[in-house]
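Q: Joint fold for the lines below.
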Amino acid sequence: MSSLSQIKRPISGVGIGLRSQHIQEILTALPNTLPNIGWLELLADNHLSEGGLDVTQLDAIAEYYPLTLHCVGMSLASVEPLDQDYCRRIKQLAKRVNAAWISEHLCFSAALGLYSHDLLPIPYNQHTLAHCVQRILHIQDLLGERLLVENVSSYMTFENSEMSEIEFINALAEQADCDLLVDVNNIYVNQLNHGLDGKAYIDQLPLARIKEIHLAGYQQQDNFVLDAHNNPVSKPVWQLYQRLIEKRLAIPTLIEWDNDIPPLQVLLGEAEKAHQIMKNGVVQ
Amino acid sequence: MNLQVLQEIFIKQITQFEIDDDFLKQLTPSLSLSPEQQVAVYQNNVRGALQSCLAQIYPVCCTILGEGYFKQLAKGYIQHHPSRHSNLNDYGKAFAEFVLQQCQKRPELAEFGYLSDLVKLEWRYHQVYYAKSSPPFDFEEFTHLTERQQAHSTFQLAPCFQFMASDYPILSIFQMNQVSTTKKHEAVLLKAENVGVFRKQNRIEVFELEPSALNALNLIQAGSTLQAIVQAKLDDYLPQFIQQGWIVGTEK
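A: Joint structure:
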């Protein structure tokens, strides 16, 4: 690794999620970087092996792009003992690629030694809140830095929820002193599936704690919408994004696309739209 | 229902594809989904993620069987093998054994006797892809050993090298069914092929091993000493294996 990667580089503007289908194209273009792409985000769980092809490719990319890590395996809300080995490997990866920050979802993914590899929702009540706060504080101690916690899409509502999702997230951010990653598509998916008010949700967010925004596309199913990350960002999501950006300009924004992955140019087109809204505040 | 019980029942339902009536009572209907449908969404998500994972690890098997049939086969595997690792790269190890059983059970798979070996080869390829790199064999350290120590040394194979024996032309089948291949319609030679898989710098090579090389590798993997390998008259392979990076160390 060169000396470039010893100093944490700032994250700004618009980024895209780095996916294996695009790695070769990105590597081939080096030392030139993609137009209007300020940074790349790694799905950290895909890069936890100690050797292999991925690691050498990542080292090359980390020389030229600021990187952030996005995790799915910390199981923030799980009642299982924390997987300290997982946290250790995440910390090592963050150090290796000089990641600007680490984010994880507000959900659980494992119990009884069984792993869902999905983002499972939790009831929003005081008991769950206290549990999540303690767990995030512990993780932040292990990582030695603040975590960005992301709101998730959900398809389930619990009888014993006592507060709204946004009330829960506000309390969590305050008590755990963590930062937030706001996924605008997830807010809209929950609006369609559960009837929450997306605009009101945006208006109640603690702006100073938002370090990153995610934008993605959902998929319409027969009677609900799935947060499939396999489509362009929808117009209502762009409008919610504009509402958020108007409140606090220039929050680093990431285009996520995880399934039916299109050519890199399509992602760059989505990134350009976000860039324009960030610059001009207008949904085209 | 406390948080721990709720999470335990939730995860069992979606990884073992059961429905628990007590859990359903903890849910409220959403705008468009009943409690049963809410659980079904997560069951589908879990199944879909693992099906995709298996299709990525076993692309040749998927090509041969067709995506639809492969998904059906994977569904059966997932039903009996929930993920027990946070890292999805560790999922699917027992698929070869499952496929072998299915080939014996399902008449439509009777002609695919080689399929289990093909799955084993693809698992090895997957392991090699993610294996840790090793420093090269330290000749200087070896030459400093006494003759007796050398004779009693055993050898370590590189994690990024794997091999297997097969009664089928498994390498030919693997190569002919690559997405990028132009050899799809060539006839398969009906001879058994033993296969090696090795990651050299940034490239994975898959190649045939002659029977005596396979015997030498089996001895090394079984922890045989240099003396035993010499007695088996297979020591001529050692310099070659070291030079190629397949052997990376010794244990005294």
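Q: Anything notable?
A: Chain B has two domains: 1-113, 130-252. The radius of gyration of chain B is 23 Å.
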